[in-house]
């Protein structure tokens, strides 16, 4: 069984990215599972806080990432880049530096995203690449999903209603899971 961890970088309850992640959980290939983690409760990074000990919410998320075979970041795009709250979460997960190897090194990561705008999340996904490279992950480039005009893809309850997007997501997940299964660990 291949176990992926999905993390939405949005805090808004009605987030298209959270909805995309929920849709992904039901579209996973056979013999794989996508568990959902949250960034809610992760404090702003502060070295003074770190010196008092890593917050429990950070420890819990770090352990979930370290236990996963691969990690799917579902990233909004704010001002043509990575949302601050999501980058803050990854910064916390890299603390202390001695934990980077356990949490990130060699772990397969992929990035998808949804946006109400016309360009999707292409620039945010590109902005993640140097971060993922610095942390030593194995970033997967075999597929892309940068959903534009996401409001048209989901119904008022946040369920994916666009069959073409569903098929694209299913194809993306199949490719990513195959990559994770081939990745040396």
Describe, in short, the structure shown:
The chain is of the alpha/beta class.
List keywords for this structure.
alpha/beta; Rossmann fold; 185 residues; 41% helix
What report would you give on this structure?
With 185 residues, the chain is of the alpha/beta class. The protein has one domain (2-182): Rossmann fold, CATH 3.40.50. 41% of the residues lie in helices and 16% in strands. It has 7 helices and 6 strands. It has helices spanning 16-26, 47-51, 56-67, 84-93, 100-103, 122-134, 163-182, and strands at residues 2-8, 32-37, 70-74, 108-114, 138-139, 146-147. Strands 1, 2, 3, 4, 5 and 6 form a 6-stranded parallel β-sheet that branches. It is globular, with a radius of gyration of 16 Å. It starts with a strand and ends with a helix.
Q: Please report the first level of CATH classification, the CATH class.
A: Alpha Beta
Radius of gyration, CA atoms, in whole angstroms: 16 Å
Main sheet properties: 6 strands, parallel
The domain tally reads: 1
Distance between the termini: 15 Å
Overall strand count: 6
Mean pLDDT: 97
Please count the helical segments.
Answer: 7
